Every structure is written in structure tokens, then in C-alpha cells.
User: Which sequence fits this backbone?
């Protein structure tokens, strides 16, 4: 019983490690200095897909990412860990998309692909932080959804049973296929790169990447079609252009402020008895405590 | 003027705190916009639920009561809300950024092709000028939210599509009774007419809910411990300080991950947001993901043996020293001074 699975993965700036070197002199973040990574929860999503592939021979795992050309890195990373193939959706027409326009573009690409049984996304991307794309893709495709998934307990061609993590408990739900699930960070970590797969897919490239190689580059995709990363522009999928990019985005960013890490002067103290005694008196006097 | 709606969440048979917090916010937005505030509650055995909502200023409470709406699943809720919103055309719709709201909100907004802004920390009304299109807008909802791991704050607007939808996390807005005698009216929804068999395909097989025990969110004094506290045993000292001061114990994620404290005590981006009168941070370095959940505390005391710990940048008092030494002294001198 093989399943066709599409994993949605986004390339994101590593906002978790905004260290000193990524800070500008004015205390704001220098985004260009942040490395581009595979969105962490999308790795949890990929692992769930790979586990289904382990358990159900014949399962095919496809990575779909929308972003600039360099987002092909995400697909290669997925291939190194066990995905079978990938699609890069890239076009200026997608620029400025909010979650709704992003979901629309992604759902159009999925419709264009061979019919799939299951779409697995990460719960949330660490740059936009909205957790909206998964459910919105599900709605656009008219499919049921299960969010906050932690573990796929069982699956067959017709349905899937999933454990999901809520604020104060867990829920086991059954969803008919095809359907969409979004996976939480509390799910198992993704397996590491596999050395054999790394060797096999090291030279996997999109057509744009191959074309921008130097003259002595030898294109191997004729003999080894798996080295081609499929690249789609807006013309390769069927869309209504009004629903894409900036014009297809109901939400607009009116203003962005960088959070400035300013140094407010703290009153410096030592653990000396007199100082602690003084502090307590102060807090009691101004009714903070007591 | 079209109404402001709050999509309420039911928690153990009652309207969830986060929904009441949004009612308070929704009431003040509705007053500003000179329109009605309406609440929407879906579930089962909801008799009398409107009484929980009227004091928060609900003019209308829409109730969909049906056994197929408990426990919550996405599709039937979406169908009912989409059906109601297509008729009522709210200008604003708010819901909690809980697993419920973050599952339901995007689904509804996608079906209505309205925008949705996630995890807002502030909601305001203001004008907007679109110079390119030569249009001006009055009374838009400014949806202010942190993004990029808390490193930026964006003001998002939704000029043309309705409703303007936003989610807000629990504890971010303040919950306040508007008028204990306020009376609105009930609109019972004909759920049976709306639900279709395909709305009911996802089934909840089992549900394990743990009763919430700790309530750090509503505590005005929090003694929080980080990885620097060192052990579960040392956390007992923090508990003692919290008890003496009449507060609760909170924790950083590193402390929770290390097993020093329970998960529901975690404060920060992926924990709860708190804004107590006093926050005592013990052995917490002060990473952005932690400070995002506590930086609005009225007063912050940091205890850290590293004088350069980032937490000291937002602290009012920075005590450079060992937690194990300082905490017992705080207890001792508090007791001495209050005797
Ligand atoms: C400061 C700022 C604030 C924003 N606030 C909002 C807002 O409140 N509302 C709004 O609608 N938009 C907002 N956006 C736009 C939003 O970030 C983008 O639309 C983004 O492309 C998708 O949203 P996300 O990063 O939040 O993804 P999420 O919805 O958090 O992503 C969930 C999952 O969807 C999949 N996914 C998401 N994007 C892609 C992709 N490009 N390719 C493949 N898979 C993907 C991944 O599996 C991911 O884990 C904001 C953007 C910025 C810069
Ligand atoms: C997506 C994401 C979400 C996150 N969400 C959260 C969240 O919600 N909440 C949260 O807290 N974190 C969160 N984190 C983790 C966060 O980045 C930090 O790792 C965490 O807050 C660090 O915890 P800490 O300060 O206790 O530990 P550490 O960073 O290890 O700091 C320990 C501190 O204790 C001091 N110390 C050591 N010994 C002593 C002693 N004897 N006496 C006094 N001081 C001592 C040290 O100088 C140090 O400053 C998140 C991370 C990510 C990536």
C-alpha cells in the first residue's frame, strides 16, 4: 500500500539564533546575516512522511517549496534524508504573498501534481510565525485537516489516525484521506542525512541552477533523471493571477519596527545582607510586595 | 456599522479566558467604532452560556448547540461560521491564538478570502492612506504583532476584505467585566440545516485532558527559575519564596526541558505570557524567547552570577550572585521586614 505524500517545506532565516554578530550597531537585526535554514517544524513533518515510507513500501515522498531560487537547498536537504523528489515553485508573481496568497499558489501546484493522498506541513514557520498556511491549503483543496499532529499512529489508503497535542492534553483523531496534517515541534526529530543519499543527490539541481553553472559543467540529468529538481513558474500551474502575490494578499504590512535591544540601566546589586535588606524595604514601601 | 465578532472557545463547559479577554477588547473596539459586539459560541449543552458573556458587553450571543459540535472539530465549526459571517458580514472577527483558534481561524479566513493576522499583541483603530491607489481608509483595524522570532514588530492592516480577522494569545489582553447588568440577546443557530455529512468526516477517537493546576498567568508576583537554578530540589527554594510573597513559580524552557519544573509553568514565546507586578528571574539568561513572555512585567529583579547576562538589560534590579545564596536571603529579609 504505497501512499503519495507531499511535504510542504519552507526556507527560513534562522531567527532563533540572532546572536551578537547578527545585530547591527543600532541594536536591530541584520537579516542578511542570518543563515537560511530548513524550517524546523518542516523537518518534523518530513520525518512523519519518511516513517510512513518506512512502514508502507511503495510510498513516495515529494517535497514542495515555494521561494526564491536558493530554496532548492531545502529540496536537496530533503532528498539527503530520504525524500524521493521535489518541486520548487518560484516566480516573481508570488512575491509579497501573505499566507492566503501563499496557500493559494501552493494549492494550485498540488492540483497540478499527480493526485496525492496526504499533505504534511510543519505547524509553523519561524519567520512569519503564523501557522496559517497548512489549514489554508487544506481549505483551498477542499480537504480535511488535522493540526498540531505529534504522531501518525496508523494509516491505510483510506484513513489515517493521528495523535495531536493540545494545550493541556492529547487527542487521537481519525481523518479520511486525502487530507492535510501539520506537525508540531514536539513530534520526533528528523533523521539525519544519509551518506549514500547525500552522494546520490549532491548534484541534484533545478534547471536554473544548471544553466547558471560554468561552461565545463556536465549536465547528468539525461542519464540520471533523479538529479533534476523540478522547477515551476507561474506559467506551469493554473492560477488566477489576481489571487497571487501582493494583489492576492488581503493583509498588508503597514509598518515594520525592528525591536531595538536597548540597554535600560538596571540598578546593580550584590548579595550583601544590607543590600538585600534595603531592596526588601523598598519593595514593601512601594507596595510591590507585602 | 457592521459588528465586531468574537469567536468564543469553550473550555470545560465554560467560555475560555482568552475569549473573555477578547470580549473586553472587542467591547472597546465596538465602542470606538460605534457598532455592536457579538459573540459566537458553538458546542453542546450550552444552556445559559450567554450569561457568561453579557457582563463583557455582548449585544448578541449566537449559539449553535448540537452534540456534533462537541468535541471541537474543524469542518463543522467552519461551515457554521462561514454561513453566519456571509449573512452578518462582520467588520472584525477575533479569536484566541490557541490550538482551537489557530486551527479554525485560517480555515475560516481562507473560505471567506479575508485576511488573518496571527498572534497580535495589540489591536487599535486607525486610518490608512494608500498613496498608489489614491485611496484613504478610515477606521481600519491595526493588527500589531511580533514576527521574525520576536525581533520585529509589524503593523498589519486588511484594507479591502472583510472581516478583518485576528488571533490573540491567552493573557495578552486584559479581561474586565464591562457592566455586570449588561443584557444582550440570543440568536439560536439552526445547526442541523447547515451541517453536511462531509463536515463530519474527522472523528475524535479519544481525548485526554489534564486539568489545569497552576495559574501563573493571573499571579501578580512570579518567581521564575531557569537552568541556572541547577536542580529540581533547588526549585523548592523558589517555591518557598513564591509562597512567602504570595506568588507563583514560573520557569524558562531550559528549566522545563531539564525537568526542574512542570511544562505549564513555562513562560515565553512557546509558554505563557505574563505581566505581573513583580518578576524575579533566578538563573535565567534572558533569551528573547523567554523575555517575549515577561518583559512587560512592572518590575523585574534578576539574580544571575553572570554580570553580563542579557536579562540584566531589561531588569530593574540586577543582583549579581548565586541563586542558592540570594533566594534564602530574600525570604529572610522579607520576613524580617514584615514582622
Ligand atoms: C513581519 C511579517 C508579518 C506577517 N504577518 C502575517 C499575518 O499576520 N498574516 C498573514 O497572512 N501573513 C503574514 N505575513 C506573511 C507570511 O509570513 C507569508 O505569507 C509566508 O509566506 C507564509 O506564512 P508563514 O511564514 O507564517 O508560514 P506558516 O503558516 O507559519 O507555515 C506553516 C507551514 O506551511 C508550509 N509553508 C509555509 N510557507 C511555505 C512555502 N513558501 N513553501 C512551502 N511550504 C510553506 C510549511 O510547511 C510551514 O511549516 C507576514 C510577513 C511578515 C514579514
Ligand atoms: C522557537 C523557540 C521557542 C522558545 N520558547 C521559549 C519559551 O517560551 N520560554 C523560554 O524560557 N525559552 C524558550 N526558548 C528557549 C530560549 O531560547 C532559551 O534557550 C531559554 O530561555 C534559556 O533558558 P535559561 O535562561 O533558563 O537557561 P540558560 O540560557 O542556560 O541560562 C542559565 C543562566 O543561569 C545563570 N546561572 C547559572 N548558574 C547560576 C547560579 N548558581 N546562580 C545564578 N545564576 C546562575 C547563567 O549565568 C545563565 O545566565 C525557545 C527557543 C526557541 C528556539
Assistant:
Amino acid at each position: 500500500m504505497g501512499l503519495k505524500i507531499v511535504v510542504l517545506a519552507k526556507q527560513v532565516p534562522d531567527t532563533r539564533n540572532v546572536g551578537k554578530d547578527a545585530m547591527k550597531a543600532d541594536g536591530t537585526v541584520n537579516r542578511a546575516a542570518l543563515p537560511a535554514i530548513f524550517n524546523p517544524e518542516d523537518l518534523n513533518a518530513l520525518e512523519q512522511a519518511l516513517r510512513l515510507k518506512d512502514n508502507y513500501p511503495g510510498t513516495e515522498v515529494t517535497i514542495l517549496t515555494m521561494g526564491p531560487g536558493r530554496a532548492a537547498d531545502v529540496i536537496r536537504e530533503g532528498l539527503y534524508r530520504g525524500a524521493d523528489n521535489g518541486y520548487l515553485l518560484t516566480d516573481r508573481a508570488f512575491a509579497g504573498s501573505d499566507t492566503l496568497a501563499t496557500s493559494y499558489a501552493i494549492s494550485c501546484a498540488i492540483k497540478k501534481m499527480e493526485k496525492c493522498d496526504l499533505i504534511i506541513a510543519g505547524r509553523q514557520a519561524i519567520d512569519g510565525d503564523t501557522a496559517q498556511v497548512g489549514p489554508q491549503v487544506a481549505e483551498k483543496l477542499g480537504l480535511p485537516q488535522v493540526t498540531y499532529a505529534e504522531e501518525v499512529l496508523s494509516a491505510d489508503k483510506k484513513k489515517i489516525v493521528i495523535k495531536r497535542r493540545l494545550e493541556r492534553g492529547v487527542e487521537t483523531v481519525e481523518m479520511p484521506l486525502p487530507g492535510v496534517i501539520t506537525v508540531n515541534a514536539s513530534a520526533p526529530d528528523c533523521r539525519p542525512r544519509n551518506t549514500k543519499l547525500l552522494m546520490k543527490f549532491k548534484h541534484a539541481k533545478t534547471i536554473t541552477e544548471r544553466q547558471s553553472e560554468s561552461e565545463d559543467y556536465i549536465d547528468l540529468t539525461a542519464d540520471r533523471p533523479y538529479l533534476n529538481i523540478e522547477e515551476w513558474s507561474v506559467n506551469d500551474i493554473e492560477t488566477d493571477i489576481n489571487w497571487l502575490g501582493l494583489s492576492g494578499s488581503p493583509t498588508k504590512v503597514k509598518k515594520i519596527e525592528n525591536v531595538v535591544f536597548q540597554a535600560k540601566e538596571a540598578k546593580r546589586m550584590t548579595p550583601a545582607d544590607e543590600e538585600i535588606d534595603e531592596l526588601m524595604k523598598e519593595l514593601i514601601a512601594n507596595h510591590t510586595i507585602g | 456599522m457592521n459588528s465586531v465578532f468574537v469567536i468564543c472557545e469553550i473550555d470545560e463547559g465554560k467560555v475560555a479566558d482568552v475569549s473573555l479577554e477578547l470580549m473586553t477588547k472587542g467591547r472597546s473596539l465596538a465602542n470606538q467604532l460605534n457598532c455592536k459586539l457579538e459573540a459566537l459560541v458553538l458546542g453542546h449543552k450550552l444552556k445559559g452560556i450567554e450569561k457568561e458573556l453579557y457582563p463583557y458587553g455582548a449585544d448578541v450571543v449566537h449559539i449553535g448547540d448540537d452534540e456534533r459540535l462537541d468535541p471541537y472539530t474543524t469542518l463543522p465549526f467552519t461551515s457554521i461560521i462561514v454561513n453566519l459571517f456571509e449573512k452578518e458580514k462582520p467588520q472584525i472577527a477575533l479569536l484566541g491564538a490557541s490550538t482551537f483558534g489557530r486551527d479554525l481561524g485560517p480555515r475560516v479566513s481562507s473560505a471567506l478570502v479575508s485576511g488573518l493576522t496571527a498572534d497580535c499583541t495589540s489591536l487599535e483603530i486607525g486610518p490608512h492612506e494608500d498613496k498608489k491607489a489614491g485611496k484613504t481608509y478610515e477606521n481600519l483595524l491595526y493588527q500589531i504583532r511580533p514576527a521574525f522570532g520576536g525581533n520585529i514588530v509589524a503593523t498589519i492592516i486588511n484594507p479591502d476584505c472583510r472581516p478583518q480577522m485576528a488571533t490573540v494569545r491567552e493573557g495578552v489582553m486584559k479581561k474586565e467585566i464591562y457592566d455586570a447588568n449588561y443584557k444582550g440577546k440570543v440568536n439560536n443557530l439552526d445547526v442541523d440545516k447547515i451541517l453536511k455529512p462531509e463536515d463530519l468526516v474527522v472523528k475524535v477517537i479519544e481525548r485526554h485532558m489534564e486539568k489545569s493546576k497552576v495559574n501563573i498567568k493571573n499571579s501578580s508576583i512570579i518567581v521564575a527559575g531557569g537552568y541556572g537554578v541547577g536542580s529540581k530540589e533547588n526549585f523548592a527554594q523558589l517555591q518557598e519564596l513564591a509562597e512567602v510573597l504570595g506568588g507563583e513559580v514560573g520557569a524558562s524552557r531550559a528549566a522545563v526541558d531539564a525537568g526542574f519544573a512542570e511544562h505549564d509553568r513555562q513562560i515565553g514565546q512557546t509558554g505563557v505570557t505574563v505581566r505581573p507586578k513583580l518578576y524575579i528571574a533566578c538563573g535565567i539568561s534572558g533569551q528573547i524567547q523567554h523575555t517575549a513572555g515577561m518583559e512587560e512585567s512592572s518590575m523585574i529583579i534578576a539574580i544571575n552570577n553572570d554580570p553580563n547576562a542579557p536579562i540584566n538589560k531589561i531588569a530593574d534590579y540586577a543582583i549579581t550572585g548565586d541563586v542558592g545564596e540570594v533566594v534564602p536571603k530574600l525570604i529572610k529579609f522579607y520576613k524580617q521586614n514584615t514582622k
